[in-house]
Design brief:
This protein is an alpha/beta fold. The chain has 16 helices and eleven strands.
Length: 474
């Protein structure tokens, strides 16, 4: 048997090694995960559905294979309730209009790769409705709370995934990132959150490459090695597509990197004093490691939120209209949250010409940022401008003043979406805790395809300032 304490002490790779060596069975590991979910989820509301029979069926199939060849043999896992279909589970997008959608009968491309890696998907994690926010407060399931402070949000949109991993329910969980939805909750919950380069991982969505290719599906993890191993196991194009160099190559960290440091957002806003202090502390750490840091400035004319909203808003409308066609009726006002209703109204007022302008704007930003990043190897900057927001703040704002809801989201997390536009890799590294005890993530961003360089740096940072033993007191 594996105790709860021992289960929680291992990352996903460590648990897989125990299963491979027959020190513990996959069934015992699953039972430990289910026990922790039963104990902690009533408080945190991170897991919104489970299918234990399907999970045990996966374990039975696992037993007939070669465990040594599976990097995550028998590791319990959660799928975010959006983007991918998992056979036997609903995909509700955390939306009341989809509350009665039938369970999926087949796996999306990415889910097939999870199974091939040996993961046991036992449930789905909470997300804001259609993953539209940097908090996690859907009307359908209610808010997920931050394990470090139950009055705060765990961030979003992969808030359920981050809360579950931080609390120890699972060692690693599926997350997706169209504008910061891996990095923001990782920063809020003291976890490692890596966004790969665009196009590296195929989701298998019926919409194709999500958010015009700006979205990336990956994981939130406790360790860097779990994230790197998961990238190696799942990277690749759709079955029907060809993407050159889709699998990033591992890299060795050079003795000296040139890292550009910027504290302000591209709009000129500065982070709070706590975040700025930790960024300066991280800069000193990087220099002590032998790397060179330089002040870096955003190129002029950079925007992010207003152009990407056109793309994800249009895709949101398509998903809702497809569901309406299946039901033979449109959603009622009560079946869509206030923020989603506002986004739909906005996107329906736009034209095909507006979408073409959006693509041109994104291309211009990509070119400008590519030029600006040429003198440096990587960038270092905050993940969020503030500490994790009070739970319910954004929900109430969306209900009462939806026009200002987007601006408040951007105020909280102005540093992440730009790297979805550039297409390069970016990561939140849980180097510090603030004086309030809440985690402070530091973001690093690289050039397209240099995923291996970022992961190499993350390994060294993990050794220099270990974070694995930092856990919330639940």
């Amino acid at each position: 048997m594996i105790s709860a304490e021992e289960y929680r002490s291992h990352d996903a790779t460590g648990l897989a090694h125990m299963v491979q060596r027959r020190e513990v069975s996959a069934t015992e590991v699953l039972d430990a995960a289910l026990s922790e979910i039963e104990r902690l989820n009533p408080t945190l509301n991170a897991v919104v559905s489970q299918n234990v029979d399907a999970a045990r069926g996966d374990i039975d199939r696992l037993a007939s294979g070669d465990l040594a060849s599976l990097p995550f043999a028998g590791v319990p896992f959660l799928a975010k309730d959006i983007n991918v279909d998992v056979a036997g589970f609903q995909t509700t997008h955390a939306c009341r209009f989809f509350a009665d959608v039938p369970p999926a009968t087949r796996d999306s491309t990415l889910v097939k790769r999870w199974r091939e890696a040996g993961l046991i998907t036992l449930g789905r994690s909470n997300t804001p409705e259609f993953a539209t926010e940097f908090v996690c407060e859907p009307e359908l399931f209610g808010p997920t709370l931050n394990p470090w402070d139950l009055t705060r949000t765990p961030g979003g949109s992969s808030g359920g995934a981050a809360a579950a991993v931080a609390a120890g329910m699972v060692p690693m969980a599926h997350a997706s990132d169209s504008g910061g939805s891996i990095r923001v909750p990782a920063g809020c919950c003291g976890l490692f959150g890596f966004k790969p380069s665009s196009g590296v991982i195929a989701s298998g969505s019926a919409l194709g490459a999500l958010v015009g290719g700006l979205n990336v599906d990956h994981v939130i993890s406790r360790s860097v090695r779990d994230s790197a191993a998961m990238l190696a196991a799942t990277a690749g194009p759709e079955d029907f597509a060809y993407v050159p160099h889709a699998v990033p190559k591992p890299e060795i960290l050079p003795e000296s990197l040139t890292i550009g440091v910027v504290a302000s957002s591209f709009s000129g806003a500065m982070p709070d004093a706590e975040t700025l202090a930790r960024l300066n502390e991280a800069r000193a750490l990087i220099e002590d490691m032998g790397h060179r840091t330089v002040d870096w400035a955003w190129p002029s004319g950079i925007t992010a939120w207003d152009c990407t909203q056109n793309i994800w808003g249009a895709e949101l409308a398509v998903v809702i209209e497809t569901r309406a066609e299946a039901l033979g009726r449109d959603p009622t006002e009560e079946e869509l949250g206030a923020a989603v209703r506002w986004v739909l109204a906005d996107i329906r007022s736009r034209s095909a010409i507006d979408m073409a302008r959006t693509r041109a704007q994104i291309t211009a930003i990509q070119a400008s940022m590519t030029d600006a990043m040429q003198p440096v190897d990587l960038l270092m900057l905050p993940v969020t401008a503030e500490r994790p927001l009070p739970s319910g703040l954004m929900r109430d704002l969306a209900r009462n003043d939806p026009a200002s809801w987007g601006a408040r989201s951007e105020q909280f997390a102005p540093y992440t979406e730009i790297f979805n536009i550039t297409g390069g890799p970016a990561m939140s590294v849980p180097l510090y805790q603030g004086s309030d005890g809440l985690p402070v993530g530091i973001q690093f961003a690289g050039k397209v395809g240099r995923d291996g360089l970022l992961l190499a740096l993350a390994h060294f940072l993990e050794e220099a300032l270990p974070w694995a033993d930092r856990r919330p007191d639940l």
